[in-house]
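so i finally got all the pieces together for this one. its two components total, 227 residues if u count the protein bits. some of the lines might not be protein, just check the labels. i wanna see the whole assembly predicted at once instead of chain by chain like last time, that was a mess tbh
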Amino acid sequence: EILMTQSPATLSVSPGERATLSCRASQSVGSNLGWYQQKPGQAPRLLIYGASTRATGIPARFSGSGSGTGFTLTISSLQSEDFAVYYCQQYANWPRTFGQGTKVEIK
Amino acid sequence: EVQLVESGGDLVQPGGSLRLSCAASGFTFSDYDMNWVRQAPGKGLEWVSHISSSRTIYYADSVKGRFTISRDNAKNSLYLQMNSLRDEDTAVYYCASASVCSGGSCRTYWGQGTLVTVSS
């Protein structure tokens, strides 16, 4: 099983600032990596797939990078609606595995 | 409009059984792989099971031998039969599509979730 590790657990950011979230895989997943956003009481929403491709309707302030074992999600200028929990997920191997999440909170 | 609507969540005793359903609409259900993902209260996301459009199936180790995923394309429905339930199966269960792509861009669809509580 591929272990996905996200850091930091919590990120405190002021509106308008940049947020950088990290995700590390215990073995290479190539570019088979997705990022999800989840707000309280809501289902997750896919932001990024293929490590760097924005999903349908996702604003350009969200960008993903990386391949192999190290990945980054960047939110260029945080908006109020971006404060949420973010998860990475690998889909290179079975079982699919999620990271434990990074909570982005208002500073 | 694409919709995934889960049902069947309930309070059940340890060792009991439950069957979750997910009704899909607004897309060609039979063409797409589907997943169950769960989230324990206050915890992160855990992938549970996958069934492809051709009915290839995978399970998380934590549910293998106890849960069974299935689909009925004629009814546009996904199911999860859960047996020998344990306290640690308590969670919101989401049904989620695999990537649905159109015009060169892809997204996934998720239901609103259904709560399964395993407790005596």
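Chain A touches chain B through 24 residues (CB under 8 Å).
The CA atoms of residues 87 and 101 of chain A lie 5 Å apart.
anyway lmk what u think
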